[in-house]
Amino acid sequence: MKYGLPLALLSFALTGSSLLAAEPAAALPRLDVRVAFPNLRFDRPVALAEPGDGSNRLFVVEQHQARIWSFANDRNIRSKHLFLQLPDPINRGNEEGLLGLAFHPNFKQNHEFFVYYSANDNSSRRSVVSRFQTSRSDRRLADPASEQRIWVSAEDPYENHNGGTIAFGKDGYLYISLGDGGAADDPMNSGQNPRDWFASILRIDVDHPQGGHAYGIPADNPSRRSRRHAHWAPEVYSIGLRNVWKFSFDRQTGELWAGDVGQNTWEMVHRIDSGGNYGWSLREGFHPFMPQRRRRADTAGPIRTPLAEYPHAPTADRPDSGLSITGGYVYRGNKIPALQGVYVYGDYDTGRIWGLRYVDGKLVANGEIVDVRKHPKLNIASFGEDASGELYILAFDGRIYEFVPPSGR
Ligand SMILES: [Ca+2]
Ligand SMILES: [Ca+2]
After folding, report:
1. Measuring CA to CA, how many Å separate 114 from each of 14, 228, 403?
2. Of the ligands numbered here, which is closest to the C-alpha atom of 199?
3. Among 7, 35, 1, which residue's Cα sits nearest to residue 21?
4. How are strands ordered across the β-sheet holding 380-385?
5. 83-140, pLDDT tens digit by residue?
6. N or C: fewer beta carbons within 10 Å in the chain?
7. Contact 210, 216 (CB under 8 A)
8. Is domain 7-404 annotated with CATH 2.120.10.30?
9. Rg of the Cα trace of the chain?
10. Cα 103 to ligand 2 centre (Å)
11. CB atoms within 10 A of CB 225
12. Beta-carbon neighbour count of residue 164 at 10 Å?
C-alpha cells in the first residue's frame, strides 16, 4: 500500500499533470536502498558493466586507480578479481581518469571490450577510447598489451567536463559522451558548434574502419542522412550538451537517456535523438543562459527542452535540489515491479534519487523514489544495470547499493 502513496507530494514539473491523478501507471514507488555486495569495496567506482556473455559477472571501473574488477553477481560473493590495470598513464583530476567501459555486443565471440579514459600524453590532455581483448591464455582476464586506441579527442584545455560514458546501442554502434571542454560558461563556444566533438554525444562504428580511422561513420549519422546537418562533424550524433555524466539505453525500447550536468542553476534529464540540439550554452534546462552574449544557435534544428530538470537551490516548491546529476537507467528488472519502466536518476551531491515515467511522448510522473532522510547520504557517481535489468548505485563511499522495497512492509 505504500507504493505510490506519497506520489502527490513528491511529483514535480509535470507537463500535463492532470494525467497524474487518473493514471495508475503514473505511480512511482517508494524504495529503500541497501548495500548490494556487503563484502566488496571499491575506490571511486564510476562505471558498472556486464559482458553479455551469460557468465553472470559484473565489472566495476575504478576511476583513479585505473582498474577494472570483475566479480560474480552474487550478494554473498566474497572477493573480486582484477580484470584490467590500465597500462597507459592517465590524468587524475576530479573528473578525469578511467571513466567508461563497454563490452562489444559480440564479446562472447570476439572477446573485445572498450574503455574511455583521460590520457596523459606528454602533458597533452585528451580523452581516449581504446579497444582491448581478453587474454588468450585466460579469457577471464584482459590483455593489457592488446590496447588499440580507436578514438582520441582534440586537445582539451580543461580537466573538467569530459563526459566519459561509452555504450553500445541496439544498432551495434558505439556512443561516446564528451563534455564541452570545461571551465565555466562554455569558453570555447563548443556547445553550439557541431564541427567540433565537444559538448556532444558521438556515434561510431567500431567494426568497420574507414577513411584512415580505426572506426567507421554510420550511414545514418546526422551529417550523412540530413542536408540540414551536413555541416556537423561526421561522428556527432547530438549537440548542445554541457557534460553528459552518464547516459544509457533503455534495453526494451533502445531509447537513449542522458543526465546533463548544468552550471549555475539547473540539472537536466534528456531523451536524446539523432541530430538533436539540447541547447547548451544558450540554455540551461528550460531557461536562457547568459542571453546577453547573443551567441547563435546551430542552424540544423530547433533547441530541445529537457524532459525534466531540478534546481541547485531548494525552494518551497522544489525542496529536492542537487548540484550534479548522475544519469541512470530505465528499470527493466523483475525484483521491483512497481519500478518497471521508470527512468531512475540521481544527484552526486545531495544523494537524492528520482524516477520519472515518460509514456507516449508525455512526462506523466517525476519525483523522488527514495527518502534520503532514511539513509546515509550517498555520493552517487553512477548507476549500473546487470544482465537481468536490475539496477545498482555506485557511491564514493566505495559501496555498490541496490533498491529494495521499503522495510517494514
Ligand atoms: Ca575537459
Ligand atoms: Ca561541439
Report:
1. 38, 32, 28
2. 2
3. 7
4. 32-35, 400-404, 391-395, 380-385
5. 999 998 899 999 999 999 999 999 999 999 999 999 998 878 999 999 999 999 999 9
6. N
7. yes
8. yes
9. 20
10. 26
11. 14
12. 29
- Ligand closest to CA 243: 1
**Number of residues that this document lists for the chain:** 409
Q: Residue 190: is it exposed, middle or buried by C-beta count within 10 angstroms (0-12/13-18/19+)?
A: buried
How far does the centroid of ligand 2 lie from the alpha carbon of residue 195, in Å? 6
Most distant pair of Cα atoms in the chain: their distance: 61
pLDDT at residue 16, as a whole number: 37
What's the rounded Cα separation, in Å, for the pair 246 and 241? 12
- Residue extents of the structural domains in the chain: 7-404
Q: Which ligand is nearest to the CA of 156?
A: 1
What are the pLDDT digits (tens) for 165-205? Answer: 999 999 999 999 999 999 999 999 999 999 999 999 999 99
Instruction: Report the C-alpha gap between 252 and 170 in whole angstroms.
Output: 10
Positive/negative CA dihedral, 388, 393, 396, 397 = negative
d(CA 210, ligand 2 centre) in Å = 23
* Three cell numbers written together for 301: 534544428
| Cβ-contact 56, 384 below 8 angstroms | no
Q: How far is the CA of 194 from the centre of ligand 2 (A)?
A: 4
